[in-house]
Design goal:
eight-stranded parallel barrel, 302 residues, single chain, binds flavin-adenine dinucleotide, nucleotide-binding, alpha/beta, 8 strands, 12 helices, proline metabolism
Length: 302
């Protein structure tokens, strides 16, 4: 399991495969978990979710960008997504990754790009979630959030439960709308819990903290045990349903997504789309090698 995870994380970071994949179109089963390669296809996917009472957080795929032109292109694409949400009256908001907007190129360049995005979204009353990436990008991402929060209130972020410092961070960002996750990247022992049980325990602790704190909480997991725990916890502590939502990734546990929405819980699907699908798809395989079933089904069901 450890080896398989490391292998897919290694593949997710392979630059040649990443750039090759942009030319291939959606392949290897990625079409089951990526909602198209362009805005038109993505809008249709979000409309279909909205018809089931499910909202969407839209991710224009791309990360670890090292060229200014590429970061500017990503910014234009995200601005176009914001306009598409507004024009199509979608029940949706944006998820983005600071490294796609130039965090590895130049801090101020990245802040300027993000400011433009947050400002347009603010105009249309659209929320922007800053996804959290690997540890090296944690502090500068929080710094950008602090900087933009001086002028805008439509920003939230992610707390990753595998980090020892997640408790400190959730307290620091207690006034924000937060998505709480277990954590998707490979992090060393001196920074992050490695043991699944310890991650799960900390995950529950953080969710309970933010739910009791009263700010909006997005519980982003496919783990039904966590979901059942949260349902019981919210009931016991009379936490209103409009104070939290469950989130899952597009294409995963579709039955459970629909079931939770039907039960009257707020449900939001993370909708990735775009040409830059390869790294995202490999990380999903790293998390859960059973996802390889998706690949086999697509390859053999032609
Ligand atoms: P796991 O710990 O992987 O699985 C727990 C159990 O759940 C499994 O044993 C199984 O019983 C069940 N299960 C899990 N998946 C399935 C499935 N597909 N089908 C059936 N049963 C299943 N990570 C970040 O680092 N930064 C982010 O910004 C970020 N954003 C995210 C946004 C969303 C909406 C989601 C859902 C995840 C996000 N992640 C992010 C990834 C997250 O950190 C985890 O790596 C990922 O969600 C896997 O953990 P899990 O909690 O879903 O369950």
């Amino acid at each position: 399991m450890g080896l398989t995870r490391d292998f897919f994380i290694y593949l997710s970071q392979n630059k040649a495969l990443n750039s090759g994949a942009k030319r291939w179109g959606l392949k290897m089963g990625a079409q089951s978990v990526v909602a198209g390669t362009n805005i038109k296809e993505m809008v249709e996917s979000v409309k279909a979710l909205n018809a089931h009472g499910i909202s969407a957080t839209i991710d224009n795929l791309g990360e670890f960008v090292f060229q200014k032109e590429e970061a500017l292109e990503a910014k234009e694409q995200i601005l176009a997504v914001i306009k598409a949400i507004h024009e199509n009256n979608l029940d949706a908001h944006i998820s983005l990754k600071p490294t796609q907007l130039g965090l590895d190129i130049e801090y101020t360049f990245c802040v300027d790009n993000l400011r433009e995005i947050v400002a347009l979204a603010h105009e249309y009353n659209i929320f922007i979630n800053f996804d959290m990436e690997d540890y090296g990008h944690l502090k500068p991402s929080f710094d950008i959030i602090d900087e933009l929060s001086v002028d805008y209130d439509n920003i939230g972020t992610v707390i990753q439960a595998y980090f020892y410092e997640s408790e400190e961070n959730i307290k620091r960002y207690k006034d924000y709308r937060l998505r709480i996750v277990k954590g998707a990247y490979k992090e060393p022992e001196n920074l992050a819990y490695q043991d699944k049980r310890e991650i799960d325990q900390n995950y529950i602790r953080l969710i309970e903290y933010h739910l009791l704190n009263g700010k909006f909480t997005s519980i982003a997991t496919h783990d039904h045990q966590v979901i059942n725990h949260v349902k019981a916890f919210a009931k016991k502590h009379q936490i209103p349903k409009d104070k939290y939502e469950f989130q899952m990734l597009y294409g995963f546990r579709k039955d459970l997504q629909l079931e939770l929405a039907k039960e009257g819980f707020n449900f939001c699907t993370y909708v990735p789309f775009g040409k830059d699908w390869y790294g995202y798809f490999m990380r999903r395989l790293a998390e859960r090698p059973q996802n390889l079933n998706l690949v086999f089904k697509q390859v053999f069901n032609k």
